[in-house]
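Quick entry, no commentary yet.
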Amino acid sequence: MGSKAKKKGSAAEDILETLGDFTSKENWDKFFTLRADSFEWYAEWPHLRDPLLSLLRTLAHPLPLPLLVPACGNSRLSEHLYDAGHTAITNVDFSKVVISDMLRRNVRDRPLMRWRVMDITAMQFEDESFIAVIDKGGLDALMEPELGSKLGNQYLSEVKRVLKPGGKFVCLTLAESHVLNLLFSKFRLGWKMSVDAIPLKSSGKPSLETFMVVVEKELSTVVHQITSLLHNSSLNCNSKQVSGFTEALQNENLIREKYSSDSGLLHSVEDLQEDLLKLSQGRRLQITLGGPGCSTFSYRAVILDAEELADPFTYHCGIFIVPKIRAREWLFYSEEGQWMVVRSSKAARLIMVFLDASHSDTSMEEIQKDLSLLVTPLAPAENETGAQIPSVSCTIALFVFMMASEGLKERNIIHKVTSSLTGSIIVEDVIYENVDSEVNCLFPSRELVFRRLVFERAANLVQSEALLKDEPEALLKDEPRPTKLVSETGRKKNNASSKSRKSGSQRHNAGASNQLTVYHGYVASSYHTGIISGFMLISSYMETVASSGKMAISCSKTFSCSLLLIYSSGISQVKAVIIGLGAGLLPMFLHGCVPFLEIETVELDPVIVDIAKDYFSFMEDERLKVHIADGIQFVQEIDNSGVAQIHGKSNDRSYTESPLNESSTVSHAGVELTKVDIIIVDVDSSDPSSGLTCPAPDFLDEFFLETVKDKLSENGLFVVNLVSRSQAIKDMALSKMKKVKNK
């Protein structure tokens, strides 16, 4: 599409008059209502067939190839690709009108083709979902000159995100200068690019050439020259358009030559100094800093200019140092996460520097000193934003996530083990600098000690956290004592979380933590507090169960802590499945305060079970069992009577081999129970770069969600511990759950 498409002929020009703004959803809905039959803006299938099919044959991926056609409109491009054997095609467009029309047109003849109403600047697909993205005019439509490059930049960021390594982005474009400027710069580092012209049948009339730009995704920072496949014989069109394209191609290859010159990438940055003197809204550039002869170390870095330069900025330019242990976290690894850091930093330009193994034995002071001379030339020369420009000595800004402080007064590693499934696992006892006074009131005679479970693959994340108590204190307490539920630091190991324990009186140290034991009457994790609060959704059902077992439930508020009191002389009647044991704190808390609850906990890693028992006082009984099994499989194998046959052994310890319930049915106030009442998913993701901290992506798959729905009783409760910094991922998860719930 694009403004120059208006020159193609009177028929197209008449249709285009109905659009006006190419980025308006309402305009496109109106257009597709008027023009329901297919319409090709440029480059029809007879011209595209050979180059496209030849390109798809080069992709190293099992068939069928997962293909994405963004801004599909009512073009027949994807239909032709489907008929040529490529059946795994997903088409997206933000016009509901055209998606509905295309679905009706293809549902019978092309049943495997998918159609989605979606904004291509914020696509709801997982990272690395497609091996090829085929754009026919989508980028051109977003790049209306008067609207700038913001939408085009967002769209290309999404393309880069959803492409698999080795995948290709095929952009069919009229190659206007502002489109090429964005396209070339966006895919400069770590991408191979080639350009070609689509041959057209000679009509004797001037026409616009369609160019095919192909970029291949590499996991590197290498800068490649753009390969030109242009032949004069195929360029039978507008000479001004061709000369402009050729000039832009030559200029871009000169820039890329500088990046790959013998003097190294740092010297290339110096050559591009004029480009970096001014802020460029939404620019993101990956570079390498330093090296032999100019610095002690070399560094991988990303330059990010704020997306909205009109915002009030605290700093004109800042440096954000990411330690090696956090480099693969989604917040720093992904483009979306990096832009979140830029916004929170209040810097007009942020230079994100990634440390690696070569910096391990170097102090942060030495790192800062080494970086100072390297980053100084990268600061914008003009203070257009009115923000403070720090001196060189103040430019390096270490943020609170750094290892300088975690808000801890003491930290003692009491156990470390490596699991083949989880990797390195740490159990540590800590004393926080500040603790809420309402928590101090639990054990006022001493300084409070917390025991934490940490996985080294996500060292900044506390998997489980328990308050420790003195053994004698436990014996002096009257039973049953109220169970206290308090939202605390949760799992994040940073200053913000530790400071959430407001300043309170500090006690004398009660001695080494090996004289203490875990107190299961207190929930230290805000994540667990959130999970337990979900029980209020089925409170009426639980009251009914409690009444049938001669139980009483009461709630009150004391010291701003929620108190849950349950007294019972009845039998266990509510079935719960908890996927993910961790330290066993959540099931132990529920076991202690809800005596009519039968809990089946599922844990994949037997090493975790050993740790829960040895270091967090986890114990099984007739109402609390643990199974060594895959959580998804466990839920699938629950039959209609609530029975799942799962068993396993580890380290010569025998774990539960009994079914989910010894009896096939249990009566709840005259109602026969044939399914599970509560399913809780509380597991972390093994890939911190995926954008999901919790749970693993498979637990949000529609198939699993449908299985959960099938296994839950009529009054059942499903709780997922969902942790992500990405709003798009959270929205996608919620959308899936709503979709399955409403089926």
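second:
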Amino acid sequence: MAQEVDLNALKELEREAILQVLYRDQEVQNAEEERIRKLKTHLQHLRWKGAKSTDQEYKEKCCARCQRVLGLLLHRGAVCRGCSHRVCAQCRVFLRGTHAWKCTVCFEDRNVKIKTGEWFYEERAKKFPTGGKHETVGGQLLQSYQKPSKISVVPPTPPPVSESQCSHSPGRKVSAPDILKPLNQEDPKCSTNPILKQQNLPSSPAPSAIFSGGFRHGSLISIDSTCTEMGNFDNANVTGEIEFAIRYCFKTQSLEICIKACKNLAYGEEKKKKCNPYVKTYLLPDRSSQGKRKTGVQRNTVDPTFQETLKYQVAPAQLMTRQLQVSVWHLGTLARRVFLGEVIIPLAAWDFEDSTTQSFCWHPLRAKAEKYEDSVPQSNGELTVRAKLLLPSGPRKLQEAQGTDESSLNSQLCLVVLGAKNLPVRPDGTLNSFVKGCLTLPDQQKLRLKSPVLKKQACPQWKHSFVFSGVTPAQLRQSSLELTVWDQALLGMNDRLLGGARLGSKGDTAGGGDACSQLKLQWQKVLSSPNLWTDMTLVLH
């Protein structure tokens, strides 16, 4: 049993040092909880691979893990002693040093218990059934100093964060802990988990009454945030409507979706007449876990009331290329999802300055669309770069070179790849990304450069320089620069192309006429303004 500790006898600096150590310990615990969460997510995906579906009959003569058909005499399979399911030979894992085996799910469950230490708590619960989780002295101190205190606690100074840095990077550490904030600034709904901290986006300073009265903020990431995007869900007969409102704050550049209620929804489990609905949103084409927002789950109702506000940080220029997807789901047993309907709204045609569009409206739910509208240009993220044409004698040299031999100019094309965001990430929400640059000269000669790989980052910030030497302004006017972003694969596999953009004479035709003309204007600005940096945001296709 932890004993109470009084820090009042210590000096102020000593108390601050103790609380900072406890905060660092709390960060370590949060990182450990995130590691355990990833292990359990992987185990859950393995279970769903062979899970029985509600709309399909379970075949007894097939493998319970890979659904491979088993024979009558040969390849009959065997029953796993852990889960009592019949599995084929390829879904068995033999334990080290023994002839015993387990199926893939039971073996992974055993590994999770070993790596997380759950086996210890299970054995302790058998010997001490009434023994719960004991609170530590550090935990008591953190709770005690959440109350009003005369101690002036100075939190550790956070590292500087640039404005271009993506605000949805997974695993980003917060600058100051909740326990070290004053009571009047503390949000009782905030969690100390760094992953859940990403949902606390800045709100509008003067929101309308619709978006301010009694509405909760929706959550961002759940343990199984990618399960529905991988096809692990069932379908129901889509019925009913959903009521929500949309508002955009130009001051904070935040898009707010206020989910109010649904009515006449279909049952997620028709036989049991059961429905546990919740709402999930994406800004298409971004389907990553960082781009997902969702409400809480309402239990046992087909007419739920949510009263929650979901927020996105997005620039006004990007709204023209996005579609808002609002979908309703049922949370079933064993965390199985059932699709109940969706609404897709093209934001390019939405008038955010009109106050009438901010009022609540009922939208009929529709079945899942196989292919979304082609009128909105699809993008795979954005790449931020800076470019400069470096001449040895300044801007006058370019004017003098119009009638002279430009081959004598020792010019360089300098390009700084700053970072990228809204990239199509992996199921775990990360990327091992790098950038390739290819400058194609008029004689079809290609100059290739490559940036270093940034591992496990969804919004990478390379800040890497590409320098193409020995090129003249006349050559660059007839050349094209292609920038592509890649995801580094494992050994023996090909790298995955995330998207690319082309600057120069050929332009980029993937994003439509307006985007192509804009890229050409930016390229001409780089060539006509030597020795000056030009910032560009390229839409990847």
